[in-house]
Amino acid sequence: MLKAGTPINVPASAPPIPDFLVTNPVALAEWDRVVEILLEANAITALDVAVLASYCLNYALWVELAQKVEEEGVTATSPKTGAPYIAPWFSDMNQAQAAMNAAATQLALSPKARAGIRTTLSRAADQERKVEAAQKAQGDGVAETGSRWAGFQ
User: Which residue range(s) make up the domain with 126?
Assistant: First the structure.
């Protein structure tokens, strides 16, 4: 068992499409769209199949339920009392959206998730630029004096 924080090296690759996803054209189209983007960013591996499938299935469900909400509305009417209540398809749509968003965060598909990655990458890039600048400054000093430490020999 790996210890927490132990890096593993898994090459970027498209996960295999699960059989159950192939029968859902909306989920399959989203799979293709997202995999292409994540592959370009080297941000997906075969290990991501479950979270990606969850994201795509919940995306397809969310689309279907959003269409139903548009057609039927947010409320339904009780057949017994005639009183309005929140329609079950609206609640289901919200649950699908929550599950979709949770998976999207794991895949860095949300702006907030990407901001965290950019912050980490930006810090690493900033550190790299500082090291390069220091090396350049040191290199410039060597060229001018022959050795920075010439006076201390």
Answer: 111-140
